[in-house]
Amino acid sequence: MSIQMKNGCLVYYGSLIGYQAKDQAEVTVDPQFRREELESWLTRHGLVPRWEEGVYERLANEGFHARDSAPELQSCRIWQLKPGTPIQMRFIGLDAMAQKFGGPAPEQYHVVYDGQIQDNDLEKLWNKFSRTPLGPDGQPLAISDVVELYGPSGSAFYYVDRYGFQPIDFTDQPEQSQDMCMTL
């Protein structure tokens, strides 16, 4: 058989290309194998694919056990200051933001990116998004932005400070406007 589920791993022509979490219909699959044949097979078996870069490589290197040891990858939102907020709020450290403006407040920000990421490491996020234009005004990730990592267990927020990412409380979020979101 060319496609099969074996011990919770998706096997495609003899290669481990994805895995299924216990008792879930979702299967995490490497997008390099995205083919109509595979998508049809998944649909017939009631499985929903979640396409994620690097799955094949991780499974090839670590085998069946990679799915058990891999951390749950979270999704990411990047919040930037809205147009019209005081220019003095931009590109300042968390201490200055707290002293001068009472800290970052959700009503002063809007979401410019909301999507899946390949790694939960904040430094890798910085490397990916600090040179990538985001949102309607095309600004890359910078000091004074807020990064949100979220998943089934909730959200964690980090202020982009001069010295790295500082965990913050960023509650009382307003409704997000989907027209301001960008997916890469």
Please explain how this structure is put together.
It is a single chain. The protein is of the alpha+beta class and 184 residues long. It is elongated, with a radius of gyration of 20 Å. The strands form 2 sheets. Strands 1-2-3-4-5 form a 5-stranded mixed β-sheet, sandwiched between helices. It has a 5-stranded antiparallel β-sheet with strand order 7-6-8-9-10, with no helix packed on it. Helices cover 20% and strands 30% of the residues. The protein is built from 5 helices and 10 strands, in the order ββββαβααβαβαβββ.
Poorly predicted regions are 173-184
Strand content: 25-35%
Instruction: Briefly note the structural class of the backbone.
Output: alpha+beta
Q: Cα distance, first to last residue? A: 35 Å
Characterize the biggest β-sheet. 5 strands, mixed
Order of helices and strands: EEEEHEHHEHEHEEE
What's a quick, concise take on this entry?
With 184 residues, the chain is of the alpha+beta class. The protein contains five helices and ten strands, in the order ββββαβααβαβαβββ. It is elongated.
What is the secondary structure topology, with strand pairs?
Elements (H helix, E strand, L loop, with lengths): L2 E4 L2 E4 L2 E6 L5 E4 L6 H9 L3 E4 L3 H8 L3 H4 L5 E7 L12 H8 L7 E8 L5 H8 L16 E6 L2 E8 L2 E5 L16
Parallel strand pairs: 4-5
Antiparallel strand pairs: 1-2, 2-3, 3-4, 6-7, 6-8, 8-9, 9-10
